[in-house]
Give the backbone structure.
Amino acid sequence: MIAAILAGGKGTRLGDRAGGLPKPLVPLAGKSVLEFQMESLKRSGIRKILLLTGYKGEVIRDRFKEGAQMGVSIDYFSEKEPLGTGGAVKQACSSLKEPFLVLYGDCMIDMDFVRMTDFHAAKAGIATLAVHPNSHPFDSDLLDMDDHDRIVGFYAKPHDIGGYRRNLVNAGAYILSPELLADIPEGFSDFGKDIFPAILRSGKRMYGYSTSEYIKDMGTVERLASVERDTVAGKPIARNLSHPQRAIFLDRDGVINEEVDLIRRAEDLRLLPGAAGAIKQINGSIFLGIVVTNQPAVARGLCSLDEVQRMHKRIDTLLGGEGAFIDQYYVCPHHPDRGFPEENPAFKIPCDCRKPSIGMIRAATRKFNIDTGRSYIIGDSTRDIQTGRNAGLFTILVKTGYGGTDKTFAADPDYCAPDLAAAVDYILNNDPAGKR
């Protein structure tokens, strides 16, 4: 596979920090972003690189030449006039016959591109976009996906006041099938603002590759400083999914939001005090924050799966206002017991995802390469604790919600905490699972 890197940025917002260099060459922890990207590409076996240059492109060419010192092979395309992200890719990649990768040269990116490539091949869409949540969704362009990862909406900022949006951000890493080039007009165009929304309207299939890996813009002085701190701490490469990850699995009702028996409407969902701050602490740590929730109201016919998704959009919106996010939601809509007048027979079935079964944990483990033996589950019921036992997780019972009073299972937790904030604080300060 060829990787086309958009490296034409001026770095205007970086001011003196850019030192007159094109933005992709600005020093960051002793290297440029382009060097970090090339190293990540090499680790995934991608060694053919096409650099799309603009501002001071000759400086980039002088730095890397044909790529021998980086262990890659580099070709160049130089814009004669500004073409935007879409226009530049159309001209530079017009001869490509196989799917190719597109990266933005002003982002620190460290990914297992093999996983993303396999995802693209399995979905067989015209494009795959890397997507992730971030801590500032209100000033980001967002998108939405269905339960099969197909992109169904793009939402440019500013967002509708009062509406709920998933915290899913177009991260700036794409795999494009060559036939997509025909959908890019001649001249100036932008992928996010022009090309992808137009493709969506045409009905062609695009998919979102949801990842927890490190993809961050470094286009302002503040963001550059943040990325540099993370890089020195080793966070980008540690987040690469070729390495085992650690997670804190979270039950939803009674842990993140107030316990409401068989909650039916997104509008009835209220975050528990301190929950947003606790999740923000998870986001800043080495752990992923992953929700695993039974929602039997779907099987009972009391709400739809679409309404459960609205609940999670509401959670994303409320958390986003506090600079926090959930890495992934997993939902079991099933319930095996029959006999309710309004029940939905399609979901009244035995399954392997309803806790205390560990189907949701297994799905997350496959997707994010999670080391369950060094990970946690936080829940308010004995069902959650039994799930953790079955999955080999360190288990923490919180006293909010049911607080363990359900007694459904004879499962004792490894630790008890008054609420989510206290549980997260215990994990981050003691990390008993890391010592097992």
User: Anything to note?
Assistant: Residues 305-320 form the longest helix (16 residues). The domain at 244-435 is CATH 3.40.50.1000 (Rossmann fold).
